[in-house]
């Protein structure tokens, strides 16, 4: 923390922030949050280089017309020359593109990667699920997971969690850590289409997605499975198994994850565990008994809403989690991590108030 730019940042000598992949969904959402950040508004943080891949040379307004203060910015190339000279560099690039950039940037630059390149600790997991060489493991940008917040304070390399792992981990971590479930968990999570990024894919055409809901990567085939398992395994000595089924829904944003695990606890006991675990967390809210989460209630916010109950006939804990995949699921977690890295208030620039209806 002693080296964090917060200690020297002023409007005369501000924190300079670059966003690589600014034409994409994650990059755009990071910029939306930065524009509302108090340090941006009082001049202690400035938005420097914005970059893209094939769309370098175009203006930001072509991709994000909602980001009016930056609309006329021209996107640069995603390379060292453009990204050097910044205090913070956010990477919103496809998997496999972050390491080559990160290794060229000085160790003192805070590099925050929204991709998966530095999330997994086991090289074998990386090779199995993503292919190619494993770039390494960085501090994991989920402060709510026990033991992670302290590693983010003053960090200069941060791996932002995947969106599904954020919902499943926050939904299951207190129960696994308290030992009130067998860590043999099932997760069925519905996501909006922005989770897939802006890439042109025939299965993401409006006419394929609208008016229809479909599962994909079924049978343990989704690459977020090892990330969820890795997170829960930090909380127990027991062997963890994860069955994860993602579902695509015809909505732009949001994730609703229904997570279950065998338990003998009562609903009141389970709820007490969650209320205690998240009592001091600014973004994770355990809803009152009888209230269920919905994606609409968290859109645009960094909040995670949880409903905790027990299906006593089946003997399973049921936790339903809602979050915005682009906010707490990516860009919000990235900005929350930046705040911790720089010594800024953790919640700065991040709202718990959703956009509804
Ligand atoms: N969308 C989501 O909900 C989440 C996304 N993430 C991760 O964040 C990262 C970005 O995702 P997202 O914003 O959705 O993806 P998008 O497809 O929307 O954006 C990708 C960005 O990367 C740029 N890019 C693509 N190829 C290259 C290249 N070869 N060199 C340099 N830049 C390139 C694109 O520029 P151009 O416009 O020029 O092609 C664009 O700016 C991914 O790693 C993703 O997995 C993580 C959690 C959730
Ligand atoms: C709807 C949809 O397609 N979602 C994406 C999730 C992407 C994401 O959040 O995470 P990564 O950074 O790990 O890619 C998917 O299933 O691959």
UniProtKB/TrEMBL annotation:
Its EC number is 1.2.1.38. Keywords: Amino-acid biosynthesis, Arginine biosynthesis, Cytoplasm, NADP, Oxidoreductase. It catalyses: N-acetyl-L-glutamate 5-semialdehyde + phosphate + NADP(+) = N-acetyl-L-glutamyl 5-phosphate + NADPH + H(+). One of its GO terms (cellular component) is cytoplasm. It is found in: Cytoplasm. The active site is at 163. It comes from the Bacteria. GO terms for molecular function: N-acetyl-gamma-glutamyl-phosphate reductase activity; NAD binding; NADP+ binding. Pfam families: Semialdhyde_dh, Semialdhyde_dhC_1. Residues 16-153 form the Semialdehyde dehydrogenase NAD-binding domain. Its main location: cytoplasm. One of its GO terms (biological process) is L-arginine biosynthetic process. InterPro entries: AGPR, AGPR_AS, AGPR_dimerisation_dom, AGPR_type-1, NAD(P)-bd_dom_sf, Semialdehyde_DH_NAD-bd. Gene3D superfamilies: Dihydrodipicolinate Reductase, domain 2, NAD(P)-binding Rossmann-like Domain. Pathway: Amino-acid biosynthesis; L-arginine biosynthesis; N(2)-acetyl-L-ornithine from L-glutamate: step 3/4. Catalyzes the NADPH-dependent reduction of N-acetyl-5-glutamyl phosphate to yield N-acetyl-L-glutamate 5-semialdehyde. Belongs to the NAGSA dehydrogenase family. Type 1 subfamily. This is N-acetyl-gamma-glutamyl-phosphate reductase. It comes from Rhodococcus ruber BKS 20-38.
